[in-house]
Amino acid sequence: xxLSSFLRLYARLMALAILVAALCLLLFSGINQxxxxxxxxxxxxxxxxxxxxxxxxxxxxxxxxxxYDFRFGSPASADLSKVxxxxxxxxxxxxxxxxxxxxxxxxxxxxxxxxxxLRDLYRDNAEAIALTVLWHLNExxxxxxxxxxxxxGDALGVTIEPIVDERMLPDSVVLERVSxxxxxxxxxxxxxxxxxxxRLRDGTLLxxxxxxxxxxxxxxxxxxxxxxxxxxxxxALYLLLREVSRNLRELESVAVRIGRGxxxxxxxxxxxxxxxxxxxAFNGMAEHIQRxxxxxxxxxxxxxxxxxxxxxxIRFGVQMIEDCESEAERKKQLDGIDGDIQELDELIDEILxxxxxxxxxxxxxxxxxxxxxxxxxxxxxxxxxxxxxxxEADLSGASDIYALSDIEPRxxxxxxxxxxxxxxRYAAGKVRVRCTLDEQTCRIDVEDDGPxxxxxxxxxxxxxxxxxxxxxxxTSGGYGLGLSIVRRILxxxxxxxxxxxxxxxxxxxxSLVWPRRKPADSPV
Length: 524
Description:
The protein is α+β, with helices and mostly antiparallel strands. It is built from 13 helices and 15 strands.
């Protein structure tokens, strides 16, 4: 995966993770605020309801004002919002938090506002209930206490039971505190449920258990957050896969169009596209296929034209043999037929070589070989074939230090041979082959003193079955495939072939340039 694609994907995942984490924190905080407010009101409702149903709570429970700033007044004098007033009128308990603790409010049956201020809501509420229970039980006879404890526990939302077992006795510190205040609040940890130990006037010990404190980390809340996170991740994954699926469907659509013959169809490649590399590779394949199809069409058309002439000559020669009266005439026709067959054989060889190179190239096995000896070999061979043309080899630029190159010797030989053969065919009398080697590249220049090639046709000559309107035509030999083969050989070596005008000899100058060492991204 390219670094840019990886970074884009990583940035998306990080952004998603941060977004999910922030959302979960907000949900956790918001839900806990709502839960805590509801818990506050549910915890204080039994005590506030009990006080609102008492005819004179301030007088009956005189210690409330001293310990918990218990007030009894009018709702109009209190600083309340419309929502709080409406809730109070519906008989609900309203709890507001401040820096000093909690403020619990409720209306009694006569519409008076009862207000209780607690510094530590959980502890003060439990102790206030315990003092209320203690006051009522001290007024009861021992035989009536069980029934009163049950009714008080139901009304105030606590569990009250006598301590009758030694195992239920608290430690000495708690007992000492009970003997001093008649109640003792006991809680091991802030998240644990507390108990309040009470001592009646006759020395009876009771244990009161209030509801558990507020739990900030319940299991169901974390389960809910896990479900939310999983849903968000699933949604993000769906969007990501939907984008990939859309890109793949587009790729499939283009493939179907190409299969129907629309060779110009291409996949749109975007910078943020996760399948961008696949799309680029697909477009490259489509272009290659389009080029191959075009080459095949051209070859079919050109080959049919090229084959028609020698076949027609062979047919004519066969007919002429039947009318020959002398052995000399017959031999002449047979020699002509043999030449036509040789021409067909050469044409077929050229076509097969070009097709093999054009459709993906042969399996090149590049090896380290010296280039100057190949140039000398080609020059010697062409001197024997073209004795009337002076063919020179200029190896002054071929340093022995850089003589070795990563090449396929057979095909480099074929490329140089094609160029030297063409130059000798069209030259007036001289051909020069110059070899230049350096640390980076190898270069072969083949010049002649012929008529040259017009600049407008410098690219056309490398096209398969190309025909120029000058002396370089079929009358001079060739099939228009040699230079196409040369260019494809250089392509598979990571180089290029091109033509210019010779500054020294005045004719054409064909050049082959390729890297001395195999490139890292070489097609072979």
